[in-house]
Automatic annotation (TrEMBL):
Recorded GO MF terms: DNA binding
Cited Pfam families: cNMP_binding, HTH_Crp_2
UniProt-listed GO biological process terms: regulation of DNA-templated transcription
SMART domains, sorted: HTH_CRP
Keywords: DNA-binding, Transcription, Transcription regulation
Species of provenance: Methylovirgula ligni
HTH crp-type domain mapped to chain residues: 161-235
Protein name as catalogued: CRP-like cAMP-binding protein
InterPro entries referenced in this protein's UniProt entry, alphabetically: cNMP-bd_dom, cNMP-bd_dom_sf, HTH_CRP, RmlC-like_jellyroll, WH-like_DNA-bd_sf, WH_DNA-bd_sf
Length: 265
């Protein structure tokens, strides 16, 4: 699963687990001297990070941009007494964080959920490449806009959706992202989130989340066990989440539609 050895020996990104995402693709010079269609025009360092480890802490100074190659992670805010609000989940191809393109720090922290492979790129070099090309600037801009829209949706979740609507909405958005990455197998999705993670993402308690998951199971909408999820009745989840699914997904990561393994329909 973790292909760090394939990134060494002069073949960076040659076996990208994330399917060569648009952010990375935008940093490639197709006419590079190595004649390598996946050789980025920026320096790269790869790190395999164990589960439940902080990668970046809020407001810490950094000179790097972080791209997630494989695994699961999340961004979060935390109160002084330790209560946590998960803002977003990262899967293969996502990058952290838009503000690091401009500033030397981010207002969010970043932590792994599973064992993960990250690529670090120098911010100065990434900025130089972004500003060289209108196409690259457009791709990065769309990613940043999509991230802001996802945060707006989180505000709607926390402010106006009830508990089962919040959990349904989270399941739908995550599984559709996994569909586009091509990580679904026989209708099964990797789903490493614990009840505490779902609670921190939806503003609920773990006990309340457990009740919602049990309810979805009893109604025959989902199966969830051993870190894998199967959706049995997507229509009911969509109805419950009260979202126009295609609209929400277009906002979430619009640039994936052009280059993903599974085209948006």
């Amino acid at each position: 699963m973790f292909l760090k050895h394939l990134y060494e020996g002069g073949r960076p990104c040659s076996a990208c687990p994330a399917g060569y995402p648009p952010f990375c693709r935008s940093l490639v010079n197709p006419k590079n001297e190595h004649n390598d269609p996946r050789r980025l025009e920026v320096a790269q360092d790869f790190d395999v990070i164990e589960p439940h480890r902080n990668i970046y802490l809020r407001n810490a100074r950094t000179d790097d941009i972080y791209v997630m190659c494989d695994g699961w992670a999340f961004t979060f805010l935390q109160t002084a007494d330790g209560r946590r609000q998960i803002v977003s989940f990262l899967v293969g191809g996502d990058f952290f964080a838009c503000e690091l393109l401009i500033e030397q720090n981010s207002g969010l922290s970043l932590r792994t959920l599973t064992k993960s492979l990250f690529c670090r790129m120098p911010r100065a070099q990434v900025r130089e490449q972004v500003l060289k090309s209108d196409e690259t600037l457009n791709i990065v801009g769309k990613i940043c806009i999509a991230n802001e829209r996802a945060k707006n949706d989180l505000l709607l979740d926390l402010g106006r959706r009830n508990a089962d609507e919040r959990v349904a909405h989270l399941i739908l958005t995550l599984t559709e992202r996994l569909d586009r990455l091509g990580t679904t197998r026989d209708g099964n999705y990797p789903f490493p989130l614990r009840q505490q993670d779902i609670a921190d993402a939806t503003g609920l308690t773990p006990v309340h989340v457990g009740r919602m998951i049990s309810k979805f199971r009893e109604f025959g909408w989902i199966e969830l066990s051993a870190g894998h999820l199967r959706i049995l009745n997507r229509g009911e989840l969509v109805r419950l989440g009260r979202i126009e699914l295609k609209r929400a997904l277009r906002q979430l990561n619009p640039v994936w539609r052009a280059g993903s393994r599974r085209p948006f329909r």
